[in-house]
Amino acid sequence: MRHCIYPGTFDPITYGHLDVLGRAAKLFDRVTVAVADNPGKRPLFSSAERISLLEANVAMFGNVTVIPFDGLLVDFCVAQHADAIIRGLRALSDFEFEFNMALMNRHLKPKVETIFVMPNEQFSYTSSSLVKQVAKYGGDVSHFVPPNVAAALKQAYA
């Protein structure tokens, strides 16, 4: 059984994240969405809130679970018996950071592969940071995030 980890802060989850997740769910028997607890990024939503927002949107995938993690991603992958890490690449600007991270992960745990997945081009400019900025100033984010996430953003910035 092939298992991959799709890590991120998912603050909040976007349709781009769900697109990458859907692609991973087709490629692997099992996908674990690993929600990073990264206080350095100063997330808008708590880890528990992000997990709840995710769980409501991954029910359509029968082979996906959502769990929190902290620490080194590759150590988490080994503990979860994962074969690979899935990373979404929206644009060339993502590549350098993701490439360096993949090389470091390979150095630390050579048996854990990193697979880069491109989302549909309609999501190539969408990021959680941009979505939060639009929501903060009262903009319509319904084209970028699921309804429960749009409602949570609206409430967070009310």
Outline the secondary-structure elements.
Blueprint: E1 3-8, H1 15-27, E2 30-36, H2 47-58, E3 64-69, H3 73-79, E4 84-88, H4 92-108, E5 113-117, H5 128-136, H6 147-156
Parallel strand pairs: 1-2, 1-4, 2-3, 4-5
Individual helix count: 6
* CATH homologous superfamily assignment: HUPs
Principal-axes shape call: globular
Name of the level-1 CATH class: Alpha Beta
Task: Give a written overview of the molecule.
- The protein is of the alpha/beta class and 158 residues long.
- It has a single domain (3-124), classed as 3-Layer(aba) Sandwich (Rossmann fold), CATH 3.40.50.
- 43% of the residues lie in helices and 18% in strands.
- It has helices at 15-27, 47-58, 73-79, 92-108, 128-136, 147-156, and strands at 3-8, 30-36, 64-69, 84-88, 113-117.
- It has a five-stranded parallel beta sheet with strand order 3-2-1-4-5, with helices on both faces.
- Strand 4 (84-88), helix 4 (92-108) and strand 5 (113-117) form a beta-alpha-beta unit.
- The longest helix has 17 residues, at 92-108.
- The chain is globular, with a radius of gyration of 15 Å.
- The protein starts with a strand and ends with a helix.
- The mean pLDDT is 93.
Descriptive key words:
158 residues, Rossmann fold, 18% strand, alpha/beta, single chain
Q: How would you summarize this macromolecular structure in one to three sentences?
A:
This protein is of the alpha/beta class and 158 residues long.
